[in-house]
Amino acid sequence: MTARIPSLGNAMIDIVQKAKASIEKVQALGDKSAAIFTEFDAERILSEANRLQERGRNGGGDMPLFGLLVSVKDLFDEKGQRTSAGSRLLKERAAATRDAVVIERLKSAGALMFGRTTMSEFAYSGVGLNPHFGTPGNVFDETRIPGGSTSGGALSVAYGICEAALGTDTGGSVRIPAAVNGLYGYKPTQSSVPRDGVHPLSATYDSIGPLAKDLDTAIRIFEVLSNGITPITPPDRPLRLAVPINAFTNGIDRSTSDAFIRATNCLGKAGHQLIEVDFGFLDAAAHVNRIIVSVEAHAIYRDDLERLEKIGDPRVLQRIRFAESLTSAEIERAYAERSEALEHFSLVVSNFDSLIAPTLAIAPPTIAETETEFDRVNAMMLRNCSLINLADGCAVSMPMAGGGGAPGALMIAGPSRADAEVLGVSRLVRTLLPLE
User: Fold this and answer.
1) How many C-beta atoms lie closer than 10 Å to residue 388's C-beta?
2) Which pLDDT score is estimated for 13?
3) What is the tens place of the pLDDT at every residue in 95-125?
4) Which strand (E) or helix (H) includes residue 355?
5) How would you classify the pairing of strands 164-168 and 208-212?
6) Which of 66, 271, 348, 414 would be 5's cystine partner, CB 3.0–4.6 Å?
7) Which phi-psi region, left, alpha or beta, contains residue 296 (left: φ > 0; alpha: ψ -120 to 50)?
8) Which residues lie below 8 Å from residue 29, measured CB to CB, with a gap of 6+?
């Protein structure tokens, strides 16, 4: 087979030089890089770049992502590397003996894995705090949170080190840091991307998706991750877009509201139908996320709780231990409520081309404020995105014009297994939203 390899002009991409240039960007960050990467081995990266370059010269097969630099959240197994999940607990575990399935797919497609990135411990928060590796600010304001849990991955892209990052999304952990740092992030239907070789937090909610500086790159990566799910071009008619009330848009701050109004005005002026829909049922069921994730995380770490008292993030440990306060009846009821919410959401949204909503309910607060009021801030940062996880939906977060400074973020969402439709609508919506 002739390799399908992107090129620069008439020459093949020089991956080694490209990798060297990005390694220099990491080195230029100095101490700041330690809060972005849990592991960064320049020698290993250059060795892989040389192998990939040689593979390309020898016609190494169909490589749609040839030369794309992708950072890896420290939840994904890479052969020979430790998967620490951003925790001291797992820092000394044995190295992985094989790559996660999604890493295999990316490498087969010609992507170069470029460092392992920091995250909230165990991927269990939406703000990006990590007392073990440090908490970086976001790309627009170093005093403000980077968003979590894929914090280091988002910054590796926002600083222009990589074209994309591989992340996970249990309650917004791809879309939140994407939104905070002016990137595109995609949370797919959970079943569309295999989780083999990915350290879990919640079997019910964990999903895998990309962060990137542009939508087409995010889509190209998802096509590889999902083994071929591609966007469907929307029908040649005005879109029917659900605009939520009583969820997603309630209690949002002024800058978020203003940005969302600007977005809906653009879509309305383009002739698309914006129809208010009551999603109060989803908001009413949101509490089950906290129950289910805590119960499933507790099952993973119950034998390590005493050690985590000494070496863990106390904020994360508190969230894990919440499961100990629950009765079996409360847990059973939470799973039942989740199933009902999923079914109801799918029924309602199937009448529309997509749901649109602000990705975040509030602008990113300062790191200091977040450390002081973690529970409140974390809940608000997770709020909108986690409603999509509640319903096993799929959603793109894309940057849009904000009120000056950092951009706002718009979420385009659909029900479970509507990935192709949501990505197609997102491509169209992207052309209608000014970034400035």
Assistant:
1) 27
2) 86
3) 999 999 999 999 999 999 999 999 999 999 9
4) strand 354-358
5) antiparallel
6) 66
7) alpha
8) 36, 159
CA–CA dist 119, 130 (Å, integer): 7
For residue 7, cis peptide bond before it (omega within 30 degrees of 0): no
CA distance 324 to 322: 5
Inter-residue contact 52 to 112 (CB < 8 Å): yes
Q: How far does Cα 82 stand from its chain's mean position? A: 21
Does 3 have pLDDT greater than 60? no
What are the DSSP calls for 4-55, one per residue? ---EETTEE--HHHHHHHHHHHHHHTGGGGGGTEEE--HHHHHHHHHHHHHH
Rounded to an integer, what distance in angstroms lies between the CA atom of residue 187 and that of residue 208?
7
Quick: pLDDT tens for 242-262. Answer: 999 999 999 999 999 999 999
Task: Report the distance separating Cα 282 and Cα 355, nearest Å.
Answer: 13
The overall pTM is greater than 0.90: yes
Percent residues over pLDDT 90 in the chain: 94
Q: What's the one-letter identity of residue 261?
A: I
